[in-house]
Amino acid sequence: MTAADQRIEHRQNQFHTWGVYGLLAVSALLSVAAHELMTSPAEWYAGGALVVAAVLLQLWHGPRRGRRTPSRRGTVYYVLRWAIAFALTWLNPFFGFYASTGYFDSDELIPGKRRQWLGLLATVVVVAGSQSGGMPLRSPVQWLLFAVLLVTNYGLLTVVGHITQQEEQRSRERAVTITELERTNAALQRALDENAALHAQLLVQAREAGVADERRRLAAEIHDTIAQGLTGIIAQLQVVANAPDLAVARTHLERASDLARHSLGEARRSVHNLAPVALADAGLPEALKKTVAEWGERTGVRAEFTVTGTAEQLHEEVAATLLRIVQEALSNTARHAAAGRVGVTLSFLGDEVILDIRDDGRGFDPLAVPARTSTGGFGLDGMRARAERIAGSLTVESEPGQGTAVSARVPLVRHD
């Protein structure tokens, strides 16, 4: 209950407790002032006794402490008070002020709506009788006045009661609405708290996913740069070890040196998440052409590169992904395929780019590929993960003795 509601409740308690005493006192004073209406000592004694009885009845009823619940005790109090008021107005009509107290608390004293209205009707009869000059009614005019006042008072009381009931209904509906709003607000607050906790959890998960993704990126970059470079350097040094003359050895040493410098540059760019060296000053077609040519020269395998469609400048992430897939596929071919010919085709087809790498090597069974070990490369899984990272796909077709075809399809995302 709010402070305003508490103040209203306190005032209502005071009115119901002291209002009866006040109206009784006003009625008694007016009756004394109009002493000519009570002509015999017996009437004065009876009036005084009834006033004392009214005071004792009120003391028995006690002060109001909050809204009362209708009960049999309340009904007895209401009936006795009405009877005293009726008797007093019979002696002096000015006691009608005291009789009007029946208007204020019938709903708190008498159970049942019908009984409450019967109690109000009884009060209206007493008040209308006092307003028409007091009882008993002696003349037709007084009876007519009594009837008019009775209908008028009861009509007004009915209208006021109806308005009061509507206002109480609205108050109850407002209370229900406020309760529902409080419940909704509490549920909303709980939801906000849960969302805040979920948001914090998602942030932690996103941070962990970002760290894991960065680790995978660096692992793949290191594999595609340092590991492949070192493999090439080892191959060149093996040739040097078996070289028949100094000129051949010098040629392969220069290639090993170039591979070392190239691998060092790629490693540095991978750490800083930059584009591959081959894409630094050229587009993807030129970078692939150069990569295929150098690989063929280094391995002695016939390697060809072809572009179909209208070449476009691709987003650096798309270009880097396709270049890394080619490098990994060529590395796998050099290590495992024993191929005599390799063909790389880059196709621009409207809204997607297709990269095909085919060789005529020994082939393999894709379903029998062993799991990656700590000493092995990223292989097919690494290429497939790269393609899927940019919403693409990678397929492998191969049979033992029939060569291998690797195809990557990625969205065509143009350079910013």
UniProtKB/TrEMBL annotation:
Database matches in InterPro entries: HATPase_C_sf, HATPase_dom, His_kinase_dom, Sensor_HK_TwoCompSys, Sig_transdc_His_kin_sub3_dim/P, Sig_transdc_His_kinase_ChrS
PROSITE patterns recorded: HIS_KIN
GO cellular component: membrane
Ribosomal protein keyword on record: no
Start and end residues of each Histidine kinase domain: 322-414
Superkingdom, taxonomy of origin: Bacteria
TM region positions: 20-38, 44-63, 75-97, 144-164
Pfam hit, one: HATPase_c
GO molecular-function terms, A-Z: phosphorelay sensor kinase activity; protein dimerization activity
Alphabetical list of CDD domains matching this protein: HATPase_UhpB-NarQ-NarX-like
Keywords of this entry: Kinase, Membrane, Transferase, Transmembrane, Transmembrane helix, Two-component regulatory system
Protein name as it appears in the record: Sensor histidine kinase
